[in-house]
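Note on ligand handling. Small-molecule inputs were canonicalized before submission; formal charges were left as drawn, and no protonation-state enumeration was performed. Where a ligand contained multiple stereocentres, the stereochemistry in the source SMILES was retained. For zinc ion, this procedure yielded the string shown in the input block below.
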Amino acid sequence: MRWDLSVFVKSVNPEKIKAELDSMVRAANVIRDIYSGQVGSMDAAGVRKLLESLDSFSLEFDGVLGYCGLRYSADSTDDVAKQLHDAMRNAWVKAGQALAFAEVELGKLLLEKPDLPAHPELRNYRHYLERALNRAPHLLSEREEQLIMAKDRNGIGAWSQLHGDWLGTRTFRMRIDGVDKDVTYGETVGYFTSPDRKLRRGAFSAVLEGLGKDEMVFSSALRAVSADHLAMCEWRKYPDPMTQSQLSNDVGSEPIAAMMRVVERNTSLYRRYLRVKAKLLGLDRLGGWDLMAPLPFASKSSFDWNTSRAMVTKAYADFDPEFGRWVEEMYSSRRIDGEVRKGKTPGAFCHTWMAGKGAFVLQSYNNRINDVYTQAHELGHAVHAYLYTREQSPANCDIGSCIAECGSTFGELLLTERLMAEAKSKEDRQVALATVLDELGIAVFLVSARYWFEESLYEAIKREELLDGESLSRLWTSCRERLFADELEWLPEMRFDWTRPPHYYMPNYRFYNYPYVFAQLFVFSLYRLYKEQGKAFVPKLRVLLSAGSSRSPAELGEALGFDIASEAFWQKGMLQAEEFLRMLEDTL
Ligand SMILES: [Zn+2]
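Structure output:
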């Protein structure tokens, strides 16, 4: 259950690793010396040479960067890991500064020669260049870009730091097993999914009461961060507060608008699920603190590592034998770190190893059903990485969040199929279906409410409304009502829920989470297609996942016969969601 990172580097000797980081900075400077100042007069062949040398640079130092990053996430208390991580970040910043000329100069060239991406010489870089062209009109001068970075560090960056520090240093009073205790934010959040309803309610109450007491701090922060964004939109000539996020996710505004209209039209579907969930929990009505509650019998089943390994591997192998072999290789080559230990990064992630055409996965495996799902999810990212690193060069491995979650979310549905097939009782089936529908509830519906809140925030600022703690709370509760109507019970302090999501306070994270809605519904539509077409669908998914970022989400949808700008497409995903709900209702 521990991974082996030695394959990343020729030697794990820390001095040799530092030397390799130094040579990375030197290599970046060499590229700058050759090409900087030259890009403006380049023809297609010249651009290709530049992009190819950037690609070889990425491949050459992919291993050492991966080693330093992953070793630190595996144990942040290890002094050597800490040193190497620091050295890596410094070297990375230096290399980035050296190579910054490429984006700026390429942007200018593309504005002069907008046909360049279509040049046959640049076939491999077509969409890479199209994206650079889309960003180009919004780039400022090198000096202005440096100024923005400097102002962000002590400006909106500091608000985000304050938010993190506040959450990291406060304790919250909770009654646990009859005793009053002061617990940290991390521990309190852990109780949000507790099987004990009183603990869940107590955890939400304690955290949001605490945050609510300092609403003045958070409303000032949110006002400043949002107003700063609107000011930057003007500087960068973004037509809309969402433009920046759409550019980085490689989607247009029509698909997102169509998707959000479909979510709004289907909120009753989520409420229908919540009524079923209330029944399964033996309650008349759910509270806002019950959304992530596990079903009563879910906590009884336990899955050891080998059971999970067998189940997840089979789930992928049944879909495509090669997927199954790659997943098995992830276990047998020790590319997964599942052990629970101190100093390890919380949560889970998958790291793409471009140079090795593979991936590494980190999670803290606790034998719960959710851990099996996390494993299937991260290994879906791994399969995705196996496919696109075989087909694409590094320039086409910069996958926007909308598509990045496709392999992983699809993998979760394959696991659900497996669990349904192996289910021995009605309760087993209920647990599998509720897991899928809970995630849909959070990733599609709750995230949409947060999206509506962010939208209403910018509208309020444009109307020059006063935004204090109470008016922000009113904005949030009205978005909450758009989703839940009066289906749920809420604690008064839950009106302060807008104070909690860290990404609201981070620089350059505006409209950060609608890609989750995108990925869930996109994959539900794909899954429906799979159910309709059976094995004929398998090569289609392989093509989609192999494309990396060489094609836009709209083009990838088109290849499958989908028009992502149409509401009908997104409704297809909702139909699949309803299908899962009907299966769950049938068990009642
Ligand atoms: Zn993921």
